[in-house]
Amino acid sequence: MVGEEMLIAVTGTPGVGKTTVAKLLAEKLGYEYVDLRRFVLERGIGELKYDELEVEVDELAYHVERELKGKRAVLDGHLSHLMPVDLVIVLRAHPKLIGKRLTARGYSREKVGENVEAELVDVILVEALDEHENVIEVDTTGKRPEEVVEEILDLIRSGVKKRVG
Ligand code: DAT
């Protein structure tokens, strides 16, 4: 049932569409939208180095637990699957698409390569499955954000536990 999951993480490789989808999902569910990067910076528990967030995951998880537990919120960020959430949505996209988007974002060749490779070898999915039972993997390639969100809502309604096997 939609609504049973209070804290929902939207995670994935940079460029996969987390922010786009997380905002829309939060809007559809009537949940608060939380940008984890902003959450970290506003609390002074991490810093940006060359546009990359440096933060202790355990410390971030502590703050998320303290401030967001019991609320209904969608957490947007590539560390969100390491937080104490009730449901993890791992967005996927074709590695070539990730490469194109990150190049357009001005990432260095090296950074683009690292992230394309991370998508290819399922880094975030593996981490998410290590940490949580409720994990949904959604391929976004060729889908509009609205379609991705509808798919997520359908999966939530139909019971999420069986989604990744
Ligand atoms: P992330 O937060 O994972 O880094 P984003 O939401 O900022 O990703 O999206 C990266 C870019 O891709 C941005 O220009 C919006 C676009 N985008 C995201 N989801 C999309 C989709 N399903 N279809 C087409 N473009 C999308």
Features:
165 residues; alpha/beta; Rossmann fold; five-stranded parallel beta sheet; two-stranded antiparallel ribbon; 7 helices; binds 2'-deoxyadenosine-5'-diphosphate
Account of the protein in words:
The protein contains seven helices and seven strands. It is α/β, with parallel strands linked by helices and 165 residues long. The chain has a five-stranded parallel β-sheet with strand order 2-5-1-6-7, with helices on both faces. Strands 3-4 form a two-stranded antiparallel sheet. It is globular. The protein has helices at residues 18-29, 36-43, 57-68, 95-104, 109-120, 123-131, 145-157; strands spanning 7-11, 32-35, 46-49, 52-55, 73-76, 87-92, 135-139. A hairpin with a 2-residue loop joins strand 3 (46-49) and strand 4 (52-55). It has one domain (7-152): P-loop containing nucleotide triphosphate hydrolases (Rossmann fold, 3-Layer(aba) Sandwich). 2'-deoxyadenosine-5'-diphosphate (DAT) is lined by residues 12, 14-20, 101, 140, 143-145, 148.
Summarize the structure.
With 165 residues, the chain is an alpha/beta fold.
Q: Count the strands?
A: 7
- Rg over CA atoms, rounded to whole Å, is 15 Å
- Helix share, percent: 40-55%
Largest sheet: 5 strands, parallel
CATH-assigned fold name: Rossmann fold
CATH homology-level superfamily: P-loop containing nucleotide triphosphate hydrolases
End-to-end CA span: 20 Å
Unreliable stretches: none
- The SS-based structural class is alpha/beta
| Overall structural domain count | 1
Strand order of the largest sheet: 2-5-1-6-7
Beta-strand percent range: 15-25%
Mean pLDDT, all residues:
93
What coarse outline follows from CA principal-axis ratios?
globular
